[in-house]
Structure formats: structure tokens, C-alpha cells
Amino acid sequence: MRIVNHIFKGARNGIRLAANFIYPETAPVSSSANTKAYTLLFVHANGFHKELWYPVISRLFNQMKQSSGPDGNSFVIEKAVAFDVCHSGESAILNKDKLQFAEIRYSWCDNARDVLSVAEQLNVPASKLVGIGHSYGASSLMVAEIMRPSTFHSIFAVDPVLMFNPNTDNAPIVIQTLRRKNKWSTKEDFLKYIRSKPLYASWTDECQALFVEHGITPDPSDPSSFILSCAPKFEAATFRGPTSALRTLHGSTHMLTCPLHLVVGETSDVLNPALANSFISKTPLGSFSVVPNSSHLITMEYPEIIASKFYNFLESNP
After folding, report:
1. What is the side-by-side order of every strand in the sheet holding 2-9?
2. Domain 2-166+241-316 listed as CATH 3.30.365.10
3. In 10 A of CB 71, how many CB atoms?
4. What three-state secondary structure class fits 4?
5. Is residue 207 predicted with pLDDT exceeding 90?
6. Phi/psi at 43 (nearest 5 deg)?
7. How many CB atoms sit inside 10 A of residue 304's CB?
């Protein structure tokens, strides 16, 4: 893959979003002048970062290359674009003095507006822009499409958050996040730490390595040590912020008129088949599938399955 760094303007004045444009090593071959060349917009889950999409993206490019017949592909992936949410990864560094609005409660609608800001700056026709998101990133994509219909050709949502929690302020996940360890002496210590935690232990080695490389950053107050690139206070604030977005999703589900596919982790504590089926039944072009033996963090557990399902989704919705 060829990676080019980029910075987008966020929806809020002064907010910047660190992004990567990811291209296949060799340009894909089109079957005709009418072949669609898609741009894929990736939105990550809470507490993580854009680079965790790399394993999915590389497998997508490989599948596109392997699927090419003598006359080329019926569609091509021109590029993938992944950005760090305003308070995460490299974006957190860019915005370090401008995130007061996100310290207590970060509305997922704000993230949806940033998605729309990125989509606008990409200047790609809706017929060629596909959204793929994980967890609240997937929910944010769907909210963005409701806010501005026909932004996306289609949306692929990996274990999106759809369940309401009326008490987000004191939810156990908020308390646990605020108590999370947030200092390590070396990257090796961080790797040992995540491998000891059930939340991360089922990830592929590749995804664990990416989290070690990009999920922590030197501590400004002690550069010899490392802290999380998404500070626990911002991760917790995001867990407090879904209410408006979920009301929008459930109140305006019928506005999701583009092709939509939900992927459900079999053991996910966030989504289940019954809820997924109920949700997509209110959309004209919705569908869902379940990945066996997977959790909510399925993207990091089975990137090859996510890539394969996404590629098939693109093939089925030209």
C-alpha cells in the first residue's frame, strides 16, 4: 500500500483531523470506461485510531487484485481514506488546546458532522463514496447520512452501537475507562499489557502491533514514557455522548435509503441479530450478517473476514 498523510478541516472552527490516503501499490485495471472507481471512507471505533484499518484495507486491495479477470474489474477501489477522530490519535495532538468541548461529553453528532466535513472536502460524487465504520464510527456514518442524505453510495457498518443506555454518565464502561492505566515505560510494556487483557488478547498480532505503534504516544510531561493516544477522559466522554445520535438513528432510520449492511459479532455485548434485524427492516436496502466466534472488536479479530464481506458488499451493490 502507498500511504499519503493529509489534514482535513473539522466541522468545528479550528479543529483539524489527521488522515491517511491509502492507495493500492499498482493501479487497478478497469473493465470499461464506465467502471466505478470507489473512494472508501473509514471511521474508527472509540478509543482507537485510523491505522487499525490497515489490515482490512490491505486485504481489500489484495482481493481486488486477485478478482481481476482478463478484462479487469467491474469496479475498482481508487483509494481508501481513514481519519483520526478529533480527540484521538494524531488528531488529538493537532487539537490539544481546542478540545474543551469534548472533555465531559462528546456528542456522536459532532463526529457525524466531522464525517460530513471530510466527505465534502474529498469532493467525490456520492455515487463513488462508500462509508465503512466500526462501533460508534459506524453509528456516526449512519447519522451523517441521515443529516445529509445521499452523501454515501452505500454504508458498511461493523457492529454499530444501536442500544440506548439511559444512564450514560455513570455507566460501568465510563467508570472503567476513567480508571484505566495510562502510563507505560516502553512499547514492549504496553504490548505485554494489552496481551494480558481479554479485550485485546483476541486481536491478530498485526493489529496488536499497530496499536502499540499508533495507540500510544510519548507523555509530554515525561517523554521517556508513553500514554494512550486517545486519553481516557476523551474516551469516557465519548461513551457519555451517544444519546442524540441514537435518537436520530432510531427516529429517522427510514432515511437510510442507500445500500446498508450491518456486521454483527456473535458474542458482541453491543449488538445482536434481533436488534440488527429490527433496525434494517426499517430501511429499504438494509441487510445484516453474523460472524461466528467474534466479539464487538471484530475488526481487529478478523480483518480478513471484514474485508471479504465488504468486498462482496461492493460487488452486490454496483
Report:
1. 2-9, 16-23, 75-83, 36-43, 129-134, 154-158, 260-265, 286-291
2. no
3. 10
4. strand
5. yes
6. -125, 120
7. 14
E strands within 108-167?
Answer: 129-134, 154-158
pLDDT at 70 over 60: no
- Reported pTM: 0.96
Q: Tell me the CA distances in angstroms from 241 to 14, 42, 105, one per residue in order.
A: 21, 20, 5
What single-letter amino acid sits at 134? H
* Predicted pLDDT at 35: 76
Helix (H) or strand (E) holding 174: helix 172-178
pLDDT at 65: 86
> Virtual CA dihedral for 223, 227, 233, 234, nearest 10 degrees?
100
CB 264 within 8 A of CB 272: yes
Question: Which residue is it, cell 498485526?
Answer: 206
Residue 72 pLDDT: 59
* Residue 291 bridge partners (DSSP): 265
Cell numbers describing residue 161: 452501537
Task: State the cell numbers at 253.
Answer: 432510520
Which cell numbers in the block locate residue 133? 465504520
Dist. CA 116–CA 244, nearest whole Å: 17
- Give bridge partners of residue 5 from the DSSP assignment: 20
Least confident of 22-36, 187-201, 266-280: 22-36
- Cell numbers 449512519 correspond to 142
E strand residue ranges, 86-148: 129-134
CB 157 within 8 A of CB 265: no
Q: At what angle do helices 136-147 and 108-122 cross, to 10 degrees?
A: 70
CA angle 227, 192, 220 (to 5 degrees): 15
User: Which amino acid appears at position 179 of this protein?
Assistant: R
Q: Which three cell numbers stand for residue 211?
A: 496499536
- Give the integer Cα–Cα distance in Å for 47 and 137: 11
Using an 8 Å Cβ cutoff, are 159 and 265 in contact?
yes
